[in-house]
Amino acid sequence: xxxxxxxNKNTIKMRYFNTSGPNIQKxxxxxxxxxxxxxxxxxxxxxIL
Length: 49
Fold this sequence. Notes:
By secondary structure, this protein is an alpha+beta fold. Helices cover 31% and strands 20% of the residues.
């Protein structure tokens, strides 16, 4: 999915959903899931101990 956004130079820049590889926030949409990651780490730590 492509979307056009204005950057700080008043030009159009395309952003898209990255499905593999590193996430570059200026180029890709970013979904931050800090709470979900924290929960997952906690669950793993409980299993290991």
